[in-house]
Amino acid sequence: EWTLAGDVALARLRTALAQAELAHDGAALGDLHEAMAACDGYRGESRAATLLHGLGFRAGDHARPVAEFSGGWRMRLELARALMAPSDLLLLDEPTNHLDLDAIIWLERWLASYRGTLLMVSHDRDFLDATVSAIAHIEQGRLGWYRGGYSDFERIRAERLAVQQASHEAEQRRAAELRAFVDRFRAQATKARQAQSRLKALERLQTTEAVRVAGGPRLVFPEPVKNPERLLTLDTASVGHGDRPLLDGVNLRISRGERIGILGRNGAGKTTLMRALAGDLPLLAGERVTARDLELGYFAQHQIDELDLDASPLLALRRISPTTREQELRDWLGRFGFSGERVDTPIRVASGGEKARLAFALIVHARPNLLLLDEPTNHLDLGMREALAEALADFAGAVVLVSHDRHLLASTVDALHLVDAGRVSEFAGDLADYARWSASRQQQASSTGDDAAREARRAGREGLAAERQSRLRERRPLEKELTQVERRLAALTTEQAALDAALADPALYSASNGNGNQVTELTRRKTGLAAEVATLEERWLQLGEALESLAEP
């Protein structure tokens, strides 16, 4: 329903039809059915199902309440809603940020068939190459226009800058020659007229601005202190949550200097695999073998989320390297773009890209020989993505990379592994082969529009019921405890109010009443109540977070 609402005219027709059916208004129903046929409204559900399928939603997700989805999946729903709307102009701001590679490949094909005008902001250079016919580039307060995709933009811009710089230098040489003539002959009567002519020519001389290209960011990953041959192995590993394996029979060996890219749709288990490699997720079966001198650097979204926002970059680095001199810490942060006041500014005010850079600075400070990177470009602009690609190309250790950024993958990895259907296997091909494989699989998985809509409704009802039952089983004991905690907190709050009233009574402190023991007892009880309330409130927050997590996909 959320996606269908993107087609506002269709949504209004569907509402009007429902109302006419309730009112048994035959005349209105006839007109509305004609209007539905005229706007191809009967294919609305199949269009919505096709969009949702292409963006990675399972059939069982189609009937779920929007509130049950996490933030990233809600952004996909917003994108589906925008694509659902018939339009002459489509505005997309970073549409690939929350998509996996399969969804990006599907979106490229969808946009290729879009007949309207597309205006889009994106940091994905391969996506731009595949979808746009012109680039509008904002630099130093000016808008430049370039025909072609991003690769064409880079080439044409470099050519323009070279011509501009050559013109500027030629003008500067000509200006210097004219000034030298004027300065030399201005005082000579025989040359005064010529000097005056040169002076006017100097004033008329056109000036081309010198090229001013801001120095791009640069990341430098240090060489590992030790770099053993065999770093990490998963041997017939089963990986998952609880007692349910998501991946089974995983055999993966990572050796010195290897560059492995991990492919697969969202939900296939890429992040689960990375957590198992990092040792964050215990294996359900099999074995994880590490080299004695393994030094692991693991980058994932939670590293950014877990940064202490009240700390400064300098303090964050000092916490992991307390014996290092402050100047060395400052120099290290400077290599990642933190200098001056930024080193001492709370992380809270940093942008997403700055937090990502800081996470990299902290991770590679220990000089790892194996980097596990799970979607490292999510908050990075094009400049930082280029810097990351260059740093990884120069890195002497091994790399395992999950990314929807094909340029980064192509620049970094030498081998591809596919996570699919509960297995991890080497993918025999390159990224272009994977794009073809993904497109073919999506076409095979897609049924006709009407069949997709019917399947979505049926599977949605069945899947929704099964998932709700599963969540209900897990939620019931938590909800029961939450109710008990809330009741206990209410009782303690009432008792606290009574204690406060008693302790506020001046008569209690009257010397003639001799209530010293009572005051002591009431104060002791108040302190005990405050401690119990604090414990219960902490438990209340934990239960609330646990219940909220069960509502996410």
Topology-level CATH name of the largest domain: Rossmann fold
- Percentage of helical residues? 40-55%
CATH architecture of the largest domain: 3-Layer(aba) Sandwich
Structural class of the secondary elements?
alpha/beta
- Uncertain parts: none
Strand content: 5-15%
Task: Count the domains.
Answer: 3
- Looking at this structure, what is the CATH superfamily of the largest domain? P-loop containing nucleotide triphosphate hydrolases
* Rg estimate, integer Å: 32 Å
Provide the residue-averaged pLDDT: 84
Largest sheet: 6 strands, mixed
- Could you name the CATH class of the largest domain? Alpha Beta
Q: Number of DSSP strands?
A: 13
Strand arrangement, major sheet:
9-10-11-7-12-13
**First-to-last CA distance:** 18 Å
Taken from the alpha-carbon principal axes, the silhouette is extended
Number of helices: 18
Q: What are the defining features of this structure?
A:
52% helix, 3 domains, 553 residues, single chain, six-stranded mixed beta sheet, three-stranded antiparallel beta sheet, Rossmann fold, alpha/beta, extended, 13 strands
